[in-house]
Backbone:
């Protein structure tokens, strides 16, 4: 079929991929809003995550640093949506950064994924179980790739 | 040990008071069965009927909603409230992780319902509530 082994398309069904492709533009267009909201919720609900951002002057969604970082993360998620056929390769640089330089505990990717899901449920017009499943699998695949260069 | 503050208790009580408890619980169950299909493991009797409107899900939703109602009214005594239910779930063979998964899908249903009214503060209160309930339901496992 020409799909690379270990690519996200081995995990995501055709229906899942359709959902993710459809969502990508919305994520990109609303990266600041969704990203800042998700990050602020992560900091509120899992305060230990703030330890990676000790230089921040504040942790609310209105804080410029939270907006900047949240935007960065959400843009990366939106971009990854266009690389389902070569996700490991596409995320390799970010994986190395997290695994070798930032040393973020990979458990945080799971925590953040769950928060992103709730954030999308708030902002998207609809969020039925089938969409939720596709998003959850996609974020899990991103988290898996981001965790792949630690050891 | 999850420490639910007075303010969070008030938020939880308030949300629960205005909720369609049966309806939301049934939707949360359909969602957990769909998004995390391994949670259907012990529900063979539902014959793969996992939609919220179906009788198996409605029946289980009634039980779950009843237990959550008790929890909301006894937030500082959850281990006691869930003592027997915890033992029962172990006897049945339920993986305690399922309780956390249902917590997540319940919060997603609240997010769809409340939209912006699920502020980070309300979100946190809900998260801590379901974490505390999951903990109490797991407490008697041995």
Residues:
């Amino acid at each position: 079929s020409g799909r690379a082994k270990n690519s996200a398309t081995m995990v995501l069904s055709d229906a899942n991929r359709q959902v993710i492709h459809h969502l990508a533009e919305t994520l990109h267009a609303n990266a600041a809003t969704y990203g800042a909201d998700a990050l602020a919720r992560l900091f509120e609900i899992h305060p230990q995550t703030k330890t990676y951002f000790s230089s921040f002057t504040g942790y609310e969604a209105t804080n410029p640093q939270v907006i900047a970082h949240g935007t960065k993360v959400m843009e990366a998620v939106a971009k990854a949506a266009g690389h389902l056929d070569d996700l490991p390769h596409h995320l390799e640089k970010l994986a190395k950064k997290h695994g070798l330089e930032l040393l973020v505990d990979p458990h945080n990717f799971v925590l953040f994924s769950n928060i992103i899901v709730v954030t999308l449920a708030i902002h998207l017009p609809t969020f039925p179980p089938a969409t939720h499943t596709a998003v959850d699998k996609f974020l899990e695949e991103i988290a898996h790739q981001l965790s792949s260069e630690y050891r | 040990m999850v420490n639910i503050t007075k303010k969070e208790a008030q938020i939880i009580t308030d949300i629960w008071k205005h909720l369609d408890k049966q309806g939301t619980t049934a939707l949360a169950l359909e969602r957990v069965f769909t998004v995390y299909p391994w949670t259907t493991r012990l529900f063979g009797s539902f014959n793969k009927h996992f939609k919220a409107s179906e009788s198996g899900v409605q029946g289980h939703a009634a039980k779950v909603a009843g237990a959550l109602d008790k929890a909301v009214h006894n937030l500082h005594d959850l281990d006691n409230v869930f003592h027997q239910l915890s033992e029962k779930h172990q006897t049945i063979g339920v993986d305690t992780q399922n309780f956390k998964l249902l917590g997540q899908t319940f919060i997603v249903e609240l997010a769809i319902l409340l939209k912006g009214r699920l502020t980070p503060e309300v979100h946190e209160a809900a998260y801590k509530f379901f974490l505390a309930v999951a903990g109490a339901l797991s407490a008697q496992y041995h």
Observations:
- The interface with chain B takes residues 40-41, 44-45, 60-61, 114, 117-119, 121-123, 127, 129-130, 132-133, 136 of chain A (CB under 8 Å).
- Helices of chain A lie at 14-29, 31-45, 64-80, 87-102, 107-123, 129-146.
- The radius of gyration of chain A is 15 Å.
